[in-house]
Amino acid sequence: MRILGIDPGYALMGWSIVDYNKSKFSLIEFGCIDTPAGMPMPERLAQIYEEINRVIEQYEPSVASIEELYFQNNAKTAIQVGQARGIAILSCYNHGLEINEYTPLQIKQSVSGYGNADKKQVQEMVKIILHLDKIPKPDDAADAVAAAICCGNESGGSLRKKIDNSYRQR
Question: For a tag site, which of 20, 36, 81, 123 has the least CB within 10 Å?
């Protein structure tokens, strides 16, 4: 299955494309959608939507893995990140992708085996799992890769069957 991993943000939104087949992961591509500071929020959201659409159309993932938001002290920032996350979900939905949402704790647990792992530990495990020479940069892209790995590691049989069937139809 081909997984689109997304680390939500409105200034930087990390994304990744990871193939998962028979318990093996392959990193296809990763990057960030960078919207400039000072750009009006509606324009930022439009740019995020257009770029997520481009990634989906170029790489044709069958499933999306999106990190859920956790409570932040700055309500304005949380709302803006939530808007960007909603735009990413809309793009995935409009392209017919299966959408899976994971908490940061679930992603850390799935990738590193420890729900309280720090960012460096998770990034090091991403590097090891994917047999990379170096950790993907920037951090937002590495977080998107971790979200994709979490989705691949998910043990819910119904998701795997659904994705395997859609992948066979290609």
Answer: 36
**14 lies in which domain range?**
2-168
The confidence score (pLDDT) of residue 167 equals: 47
The angle formed by the CA atoms of residues 53, 169 and 87, to the nearest 5 degrees, is: 20
Structure tokens at 3: 């997984």
- To the nearest whole number, what is the mean pLDDT of the chain? 90
Q: Is the pLDDT of residue 158 over 60?
A: no
Q: What is the CATH number of the domain that holds 28?
A: 3.30.420.10
Task: Determine whether 7 is an active site residue.
Answer: yes
* Cα–Cα distance for residue pair 123/146, rounded to 1 Å: 8
Q: Looking at 51, 67, 98, 143, which residue is catalytic? A: 67
pTM of the model: 0.88
Residue 71 banded pLDDT, cuts 50, 70, 90: low
The pLDDT of residue 162 is above 80:
no
Residues 51, 98, 140, 143: which is the catalytic one?
140
Number of domains in the chain: 1
Name the burial class of residue 49, with classes exposed (0-12), middle (13-18) and buried (19+) by CB atoms within 10 angstroms of its CB.
middle
Whether 34 sits among the annotated catalytic residues: the reply is: no
Contacts of 98 (CB under 8 A, 6+ apart): 62, 63, 64, 159, 162, 163, 166
Interatomic CA distance for residues 85 and 66, integer angstroms: 8
